[in-house]
Design a protein that fits this description.
six-stranded mixed beta sheet; globular; seven-stranded mixed barrel; OB fold (Dihydrolipoamide Acetyltransferase, E2P); alpha+beta; single chain
Length: 491
């Protein structure tokens, strides 16, 4: 049996089926999962935690490094358009950084997360940004101050959020943490259970290191004495390891023998990864989920669109037995949740390295039940259109034709008088049109048709580089090249 995994969120049923089939032990299962599977789910602390991201676009995978690597690869194999990236700031990581900006409630910190080419720091050092709330530090911080911080909550690379940081260091796992302080803290609501846990240290004969205290977590209420003892032993070992790492590093901002700031985290108890699911992957997860529960066509595709849409799926599946062979009801979904003609939606342009670029907000001018959505943007003047070598003039209109599930989409630019100034065709993962945004990941290679009718294929070199870097798996890269070739011939 492989490492125990805990799964939460809208993909939980499908991923539980997937991970059980791969030989993983799924633990701490939610009540719906327990009802859907004929399995005995244990309550042992997981080695890996898989949780749906706040925007429902994918999952975070965090825990034991070897187990995270195994689960990450299994999830990336879900579909051709599933993409995965290492999390440079998994929760629990201790790093040195520098305050780069002060905001109303906290500070932005540049974190030195490791060496590498193309890093934001000179010398090839890679940096990431984190957010440090003022309430999480004892002293006032100003721009330019060196700080030592621990990651409390990480953030997916495609979101606008920064990892949240803390100025104090904690250690531990699912049952108990150790934190600076004295006495014992119990984070449970049951008074009787709290009193029992408060005396557990004396019962077990274990003492935290000096200047640390135990903080029992809610799952400890249901754990037996053996599990509590093992959890506390792990927490003590982790705290001692953090102390050793911090002591070895010296003070914040201390230079190494070469006169440079530390390039790596001081301690990384856990590893992490982020996995984004494209449209084909969501439908593949539908098939997995269908093995355990009634599942409508496009179950995960609809749930990924909005919280309201997610609730609508639950209601529909509870009221009637869905036909697994029915087509995806795009028209019904858009009628209920949007977008509709006249709405504004964002064009969310994902990049193969995990970043997300919003191309702007566009107005929906047409929606068809077959999955076609047309949007328009009015352009500002200045510069030229990429790949077309045509000046961009104020008043130009960009008309983008999106179609749910298609591996490409064209944008035609027209002047005020309606003259076509060129067409740019993006090759991408299958388009998804959500209520407030159209989402995809750009696959670099593009095809343009200029005003004189000439057709040119662009950026094959960027696709090759992304493939070599591991950002675009080979099957996805080959699909992109095939789509680009078909577009060249068609235009």
């Amino acid at each position: 049996m492989s490492a125990p995994v805990r799964v939460r969120g809208i993909y939980a049923t499908a991923l539980t089926e997937l991970l059980l089939d791969a030989g993983h032990e799924v633990v701490d299962a939610s009540p719906p999962i327990r009802r859907r599977f004929d399995e005995e789910f244990g309550n042992a602390p997981p080695d890996v935690r898989v949780e749906t991201t706040g925007d429902r676009q994918g999952v975070g995978v965090h825990g034991d490094p070897d187990a995270v690597a195994s689960v990450r690869e299994r999830l990336r194999d879900v579909g051709v358009d599933a993409l995965a990236w290492t999390d440079p700031t998994p929760p629990g990581t201790v790093l040195d950084g520098e305050v780069t900006e002060t905001l109303g409630d906290g500070a932005v910190v540049a974190l030195r997360v490791g060496g590498g080419d193309g890093g934001a720091e000179s010398g090839g050092v890679t940096t990431a940004e984190g957010y440090l709330p003022y309430e999480a530090v004892d002293d006032r911080v100003e721009t330019g101050d060196p700080v030592r911080v621990q990651v409390r909550e990480s953030a997916a690379p495609w979101t606008a959020h920064r990892p949240e940081l803390d100025g104090s260091v904690r250690a531990g796992g699912e049952l108990v943490a150790l934190e600076p302080g004295s006495g014992t803290r119990v984070d449970v609501r049951d008074d009787a259970a709290a009193r029992e846990l408060a005396g557990m240290l004396d019962l077990l004969g274990l003492e935290p290191p000096d200047e640390w205290r135990a903080a029992w977590k809610p799952p400890a209420v249901d754990a037996d004495t053996e599990e509590l003892e093992a959890g506390l032993e792990r927490a003590v070992a982790a705290a001692e390891g953090l102390e050793d790492a911090v002591d070895a590093a010296g003070g914040v901002g201390v230079l190494d023998d070469a006169g440079r700031l530390r390039d790596e985290p001081l301690a990384s108890p856990d590893a992490g990864a982020w996995v984004w699911f494209g449209r084909e992957s969501r439908f593949a997860l539908d098939d997995r989920r269908r093995e355990a529960a009634a599942t409508m066509p496009g179950h995960h595709r609809v749930k990924a669109g909005s919280a309201d849409a997610s609730s609508g799926v639950d209601l529909a599946e509870a009221l009637c037995e869905p036909d697994p062979d029915a087509p995806f009801p795009f028209g019904v979904v858009t009628d209920a949740f949007g977008p509709s003609e006249g709405d504004a939606i964002r064009l969310e342009h994902g990049k193969p390295d995990g970043r997300l670029i919003t191309l702007g907000e566009a107005t929906v001018t047409a929606v068809d039940a077959d999955g076609s959505v047309t949007v328009e943007r009015e352009m500002t003047g200045g510069g030229t259109y990429d790949g077309l070598n045509v000046p961009r003039e104020a008043g130009d209109v960009a008309e983008t034709s999106l179609k749910e599930g298609r591996w490409w989409y064209p944008t035609t630019y027209r002047g005020r008088d309606g003259t076509v100034r060129g067409t740019y065709v993006n090759v991408c993962t299958p388009v998804e049109v959500f209520p407030d945004a159209a989402r995809y990941v750009d696959l670099h290679v593009d095809v343009v048709k200029r005003p004189d009718g000439t057709v040119e294929r662009l950026d094959d070199d960027e696709l090759r580089d992304a493939e070599a870097a591991g950002d675009v798996p080979e099957p996805l890269a080959e699909k992109a090249r095939g789509v680009a070739s078909a577009l060249e011939n068609a235009l």
